[in-house]
Q: What sequence folds into this?
């Protein structure tokens, strides 16, 4: 059961951007303008709504009265991108009785196809009419593209002054045919936290979640992770309390990141890679990421093949210097490589364990350094090829 | 018709390392010890034969009397790796009447399985007996693993003092089930060039060929590219003549690299990526490599989908700063993106052109910088998953 924060309403309608009739326009509206922070794609090719969202957050110092999201068109690499993003944000602001710069726009869908703002503008009154505190999941579904499962997570944190709630939704990972390219995540809380502190908390939480996640290594043009805090709980957090909040936020973000990896395009399995004992966190992270991106590791996991040689090999070309003779590797907790050499194990039993929906890979450097990292990814299957290799018609 | 250099003999036999009966042990023997240079994998996990080959080249200052190659076992991450590599090199030296340090060992096959030297030692007399000047292709076949086609290239260069010949063979790209992991390439010439100059020529030639090639981004533990010059043509090249030689060598290496990409695991198409107009060669190279590694680009090419948004997107996350509004993209010579926006083209016609066995992607920065690069890769298909995702039995 989701623990929804107080003071938010959610609404979604079908505006006609998708071919199949399913909600493709969504609003998330705090009862009062909320402090906000967001992280965006690092791709130098950035969609118009990403650029506009940045501008708006800057102009308001982090204050959001509404999130406007559409699926079906990424509004990226388009002649009229700026205009369309601005026109739809303006219309949303008008419908909600707020300022345009307090609207946070986000789009997901095809790249390079002009986005007509009209269907969105026309559908906005219906989206506003749909707003309701209990339609969190409806919005979480409206933003889905190739996702096969809705992705939501929440936490409740008790404080002396009362409880606060954090609830997040996410879509994506993997890019959807044709060219759909985005991870979107929206996290709402009813705690009272200023925008500046929110930004730090979000950055910190993203490190071990959205920044430790890969499906195919392709960084999209539209990635957006936004956090809103409307203070509706009446609980104002001091810096010490914000730390505890940060931990809960991180749990929400990690849960969403795991859900995204598990639902990667064509994926049958979530892969959780843990790397420990290396010199520093950066080294551990590079190794974890290189293993997470290796098609050979990902296909082996798909085939339930305890193929530790590929894991060791990927670590070896990560760019990190280490002594292979000091490396132990575990699959599902079973040692498969000790000191860089084959360990004895029952291959039949391990294969069965590798059929699980979650596969744990651990790489340990016996050097015993403090550097550790964790990374989420998924297996690589024919499904990925089928989703991404089919004709664009 | 291959133009084989004078003064080399080739032999191959079945030593029993492969399951199916096909040659898996090969020798390449210059009539007299040849000047030699080699490039090896940059993976920190390196197979025993790679380490030994390095030592040998160092000890002799680049002098090789025989190349000893086995398929079926990579002799990597093995307890007895050093011993096995040394024992087989010793046996080869004895059979050929030369010194152990003049043997260049190379292995390809499964990682992490102990390699018994006995079958190799036992089969060496037969391999020596098989040596003949006309068995170049036989050896090129013996070193194949998942390769579906034999890979050979040659050049003849006329000089005032007479012609010299360069002939190369290569195997691999992609890693073969289970864990087979290697690109091996051996290039022989009958020109007289000292080892020091050979090294420079090889490095230079590798840059635009073997170092501009990716199938799955996985750098193997056994990669070896060796160049031998035995001087049997009697033609000694001065520095100016060596430059012309270098160009011919580069053509041989590029031909081999193209053949490897075209025969990548599961590949139906060679992809040639050309990037021009960027600030410098390094930027162009990073962009070309990022596009070449993108699973979304590779699956789109597999599906003959003129999906330029994915190409632009990959360029965007390469880490290179550029202005997307200055980017043009061509597929098979057809403009598909102009100034970062969709160009008009006949999609049906272009799809048909994308069914070709060779797909050309060009990315041009209108900024008009001098930085350019070319990269070879292949499409990503279900075949790759099937080859690499099946059970290890």
A:
């Amino acid at each position: 059961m989701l623990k929804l924060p107080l003071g938010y309403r959610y609404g979604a309608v079908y505006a006609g951007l998708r071919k199949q009739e399913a909600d493709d326009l969504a609003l998330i509206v705090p009862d009062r303008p909320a402090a906000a922070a967001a992280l965006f794609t690092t791709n130098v090719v950035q969609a118009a709504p990403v650029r506009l969202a940045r501008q708006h957050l800057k102009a308001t110092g982090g204050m959001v009265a509404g999130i406007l999201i559409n699926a079906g068109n990424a509004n990226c690499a388009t002649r009229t991108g700026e205009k369309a993003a601005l026109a739809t944000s303006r219309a949303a602001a008008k419908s909600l009785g707020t300022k345009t710069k307090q609207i946070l726009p986000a789009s997901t869908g095809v790249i390079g196809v002009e986005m007509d703002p009209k269907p969105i503008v026309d559908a906005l009154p219906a989206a506003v009419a749909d707003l309701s505190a209990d339609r969190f999941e409806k919005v979480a579904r409206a933003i889905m593209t190739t996702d096969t499962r809705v992705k939501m997570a929440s936490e409740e944190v008790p404080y002396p002054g009362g409880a606060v709630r954090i609830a997040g939704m996410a879509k994506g990972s993997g890019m959807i045919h044709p060219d759909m390219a985005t991870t979107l995540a929206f996290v709402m809380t009813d705690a009272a936290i200023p925008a500046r502190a929110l930004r730090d908390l979000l950055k910190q939480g993203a490190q071990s979640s959205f920044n430790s996640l890969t499906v195919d290594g392709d960084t999209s043009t539209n990635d957006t992770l936004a956090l809103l805090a409307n203070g509706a709980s009446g609980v104002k957090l001091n810096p010490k309390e914000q730390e505890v909040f940060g931990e809960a936020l991180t749990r929400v973000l990690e849960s969403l990141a795991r859900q995204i990896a598990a639902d990667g395009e064509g994926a049958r399995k979530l892969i959780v890679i843990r790397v420990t004992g290396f010199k520093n966190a950066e080294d551990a992270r590079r190794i974890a990421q290189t293993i997470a991106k290796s098609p050979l590791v990902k296909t082996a996991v798909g085939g339930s093949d305890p193929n530790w040689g590929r894991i060791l090999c990927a670590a070896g070309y990560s760019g990190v210097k280490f002594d292979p003779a000091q490396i132990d590797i575990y699959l599902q907790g079973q040692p498969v490589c000790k000191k860089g050499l084959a360990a004895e194990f029952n291959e039949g039993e391990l294969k069965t364990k590798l059929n699980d929906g979650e596969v744990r890979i651990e790489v340990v450097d016996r050097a015993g350094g403090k550097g550790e990292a964790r990374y989420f990814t998924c297996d690589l299957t024919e499904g990925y090829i089928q989703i991404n290799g089919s004709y664009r018609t």
About this structure: Residues 8-262 of chain A form a domain with the L-amino peptidase D-ALA esterase/amidase fold (CATH 3.60.70.12). The first helix of chain A runs from residue 48 to 60. Chain A touches chain B through 65 residues (CB under 8 Å). Chain A has two domains: 8-262, 270-389.
